[in-house]
Specification:
Elements (H helix, E strand, L loop, with lengths): L1 H5 L1 H12 L6 E5 L4 H13 L13 H7 L6 E4 L8 H11 L9 E5 L7 H12 L5 E7 L7 H4 L3 E4 L4 H10 L4 H10 L3 H8 L2 H17 L3 H14 L3 H16 L7 H16 L4 H10 L1
Parallel strand pairs: 1-4, 1-5, 2-3, 3-4
Helix pairs in contact: 3-4, 5-6, 8-9, 9-10, 9-13, 11-12, 11-13, 12-15, 13-14, 14-15
């Protein structure tokens, strides 16, 4: 099972919880890496027709419908724009008060829960404090510090750190060199994005150009100055230029044993701040070299 590789420790914890039938009614998952996949696994476990020690089979009608987001008793709520509105949560709670269509259980998954309006978040408290016997709610967030303390204190919190070792191995298997795989694994938020990076020729060109630029920084400022101009031509738009600053930071961090690395890390930070203040991208790179 892929989830077992993405988050082995958390998977084992929930495997034990499901086997002993001790699933709580309210969870807060903090971190992007496979948290939604885990939420879906827990939802499937409530409805699976052929479970094994509490784990869902993934193949039965219920499991397949849940995976396709087409199961009436599993609701996934996402922000509309940058906000989850109060009425959306109140509508959800009205569904909580009714029986499930497919069975007794209901599962509600709220993605980007930190984007709930404060009134929406407060509306959830009553359910979390007085849950119905067969209803479950799973809140997902990138950063649990943005969740109301009153909600955090009433949920079981699990942290989903990025598994960079797994991503690196997968990228190496996709044909990347180890050092390139490590950088893209650090950049990507999940396997889907890492895979997209590995198949994006522009991203690979940016990575190679950044590697040349960093190498020259430690050898010859004159050559690094010229390479900076070529790098600026490679990164034509704002999104690519933002990636360049992130890649440079990661590459320089890996050179920490070199005496000048910390100075260049400070310089790349200052260069990015200049760029964010609308200084020309090439000029910002040149500043980084001469500083």
């Amino acid at each position: 099972m892929e989830l077992e590789k993405l988050q082995p420790k958390i998977f084992q914890e929930f495997k034990h919880i499901l086997k002993s039938d001790r699933l709580s009614h309210a969870y807060l998952f903090s971190g992007d890496f496979a948290s939604f996949e885990m939420a879906l696994l827990l939802a499937k476990s409530r409805f699976c027709e052929q479970p094994t020690d509490g784990l869902p089979c993934g193949e039965c009608r219920s499991c397949r419908l849940i995976a396709a987001n087409d199961f009436s008793d599993v609701r996934v709520v996402e922000p509309s724009g940058q906000l989850i509105k109060t009425e959306t949560i109140r509508s959800l709670l009205r569904e909580f008060s009714s029986s499930g269509f497919e069975g007794q259980s209901q599962v509600f998954i709220i993605r980007d829960a930190d984007k709930m309006h404060v009134n929406a978040a407060n509306s959830l408290l009553k359910f979390i404090e007085e849950p119905q016997s067969d209803s479950y709610i799973i809140l997902l967030t990138r950063d649990d510090s943005k969740i109301l303390p009153t909600i955090k204190s009433r949920t079981q919190i699990f942290h989903f750190p990025k598994n960079t070792v797994y991503l690196t191995k997968q990228l190496e298997q996709a044909g990347l060199l180890k050092n390139q795989a490590e950088i893209l694994a650090d950049l990507a938020k999940d396997w889907k994005q890492a895979e997209e990076f590995s198949q994006n020729s522009k991203m690979l060109d940016l990575l190679k150009a950044c590697e040349r630029f960093v190498s020259l920084l430690f050898k010859s400022k004159d050559l690094a100055f010229l390479e900076g101009a070529r790098l600026a031509q490679t990164a034509a738009d704002k999104s690519e230029q933002d990636w360049v600053f992130q890649i440079l930071t990661l590459l320089l961090a890996k050179q920490y044993e070199k005496r000048a690395a910390l100075d260049y890390l400070e310089a790349v930070y200052q260069a990015k701040q200049m760029w964010l203040s609308n200084v020309n991208f090439q000029n910002a790179l040149e500043y980084m070299v001469i500083k």
